[in-house]
Amino acid sequence: MKARHLDTLLLLLCLGFAWELIYALVGPDVVPSPVTTLRRAGELVQTANFWKDAASTGHAFALACAIGIGGGIAIGLLLGFSKLATEVADPMLGTIYSIPKITLYPIILLIFGLNLSAKVAFGVIHGVFPVIIATMSALRNVPPIHRRTAHVLGLSPAATISTVLVPAALPEIFSGIRIGVAVTLLGTLLAEMFASASGLGFALTRAMELHEVVDIFALALLIFASAAILNGSLLALERRLRGHD
Amino acid sequence: MTDPALVDAGIHIEARGITKIFAAVGGGNDVHAVGPLDLDIRHGEFFSVVGPSGCGKSTLLDILAGLTRPTSGTVVCAGAKVGAAVPDGIGVVFQQDASFAWLSVKDNVAFGLRRKGFAAPEIKRRVDHALAFMGLSGFAGAYPAQLSGGMRQRVCIARTLVMQPSVLLLDEPFAALDQQTRLLMGDELLRIWRDTGATVVLITHALDEAGMLSDRIGIMSARPGRFIDIVATGWPRDRDSRIVSDRHFGEVTARLWTRLREESLRAIGRDEMPASAAQQAHRP
After folding, report:
1. Does the distance separating the beta carbons of A163 and B115 come in below 8 Å?
2. Chain B residues in contact with A147 (beta carbon < 8 A)
3. Segment A22-77, tens digit of pLDDT
4. Which whole number is the average pLDDT over A9-20?
């Protein structure tokens, strides 16, 4: 536990040092110093505009997670219980997963327009596939002995699913959820950056267009920190879930 | 191989004309795994099945348990026909670790009782008893990953015992354990068998295990598996692993091995041919 915290601290120090070094090399017009950036980030979080953008991103992200992760688990479970469906769907899903979704963005825009639903849709198409794939693979990886045990104990098919197969698959499904959440955030921010009028991604693009270098870095730092905290909490939850592995 | 003298002696499990043929997958030949075979197992008997690997021992156990339907033939257990579902009163323990990693030892053992809707006090009573009986009381709150392989197998046995089965079917339950643990688990199995009065059918590839534990040992042929001999050991009911030093133990295992050796050679396709001749024969 302690060692892990120490590792994180060391990593942050190294990143800070590298940043400082780059800053010293290329100068403040391209990369602001860590201290300047931190100060600007501190100012930003006290402005109403920042929180309006954060709320907008959070709203889209939460919806995209609910639809993408929930839908991914549901679809993954449906497909995963059938061996045939798994075999048919698996290579297709793998291919779709590896397509750069950004190429689909024009289509998403045409369908949904410049608003919340486009952001949500873009988050969903990022997050849903890793979750489906992880859920299917988790079910496939449940040792056959568990099904036999359920049968021997006289469990109905429904009870087998809810009390044996899903609990057995849960840790692996959760790994998929963690990845799904991360890429959903990515998708949401991308959508905001490319065509949107609100959200942190939009704020970032605006800062880029105005060449507000310190703002770009401060926003990126804040987004990075939120994503790291989110991922860290999910990882901690996953560790607890796997606690007795 | 039906012994007419046994029919009156209280038959618990009766298998008649059992065959199992696995349908070919992808253009291969059908695999005739088992039979036809007959088998009678008495109430409270400790019966072991030995045979060359791949002879269909485990398939036979699956059929007795109702986990697999035989291609033909019937199994009657305590007067009721064994069908597609595992009948109440039959407990099965597998070779592989079947403990649930997400449940504590206590919850693993209570699992079957909870699913069957037993009352909480009864569950607690049975679970506490089974944990004490299997020497797991100190590990009630532990998770399987924290236990050794032998301890995990105890958890699986305890989970089966709390259902109070009248028939205990064991599919090489100690095969994954080291030799000392196996001998000790053998002693525990004898204790369970005596204390519960259950009928035990043990599938094993370890001849010493079969010779030490069983009242009778069925020797199966190479595939398709049939019984080529049934050896009665004549051990007293009150016995433990120390009978391995008994002179009669050597006779029992020697007889098992003599019958099995030719079958095992046949199973690997050698008959009594010397190895070099066999290789010659395979050359085009």
Report:
1. yes
2. none
3. 988 888 888 888 888 899 999 988 999 899 999 999 999 999 999 999 999 999 99
4. 90
Tell whether ipTM is more than 0.90: no
Query: At A90, which CATH number?
Result: 1.10.3720.10
Q: Which domain holds residue B59?
A: 4-89+196-282
Nearest to A152 among B67, B103, B145 (CB): B67
Backbone angles phi, psi at B48, to 5 degrees: -115, 150
Contacts of B115 in chain A (CB under 8 A): 153-155, 159, 163
CB contact under 8 A, B102 and A170: yes
**CA nearest neighbour of B93 among B161, B36, B182:** B161
For residue B33, what is the domain's CATH number?
3.40.50.300
Collect all residues of chain A within an 8 Å Cβ-Cβ radius of residue B101: 168, 244-245
Q: Per-block average pLDDT, block size 10, for chain B (284 residues)?
A: 49 87 77 85 91 84 87 84 77 90 92 90 92 88 89 90 90 82 84 88 88 90 85 85 84 86 74 50 48
Rounded CA separation A111/A120 (Å): 12
Residue A166 token pair: 């899903």
B145 shares contact with chain A (CB less than 8 Å) = yes
How much helix, strand and coil, in percent to the nearest 5, is found in chain B?
40, 20, 35
Which domain range does residue A85 map to? 53-241
Q: What is the mean pLDDT of chain A?
A: 88
Tell me, yes or no, whether A43 lies in a domain: no
- Predicted local confidence at residue B283, as pLDDT: 47
pLDDT for position B6: 43
Q: Could you tell me if B97 and B216 lie in one domain?
A: no
Q: Would you state the pLDDT for residue B234?
A: 84
Query: Which residue on chain A is closest to B143 by alpha carbon?
Result: A244
At B103, list the tokens: 């449940």
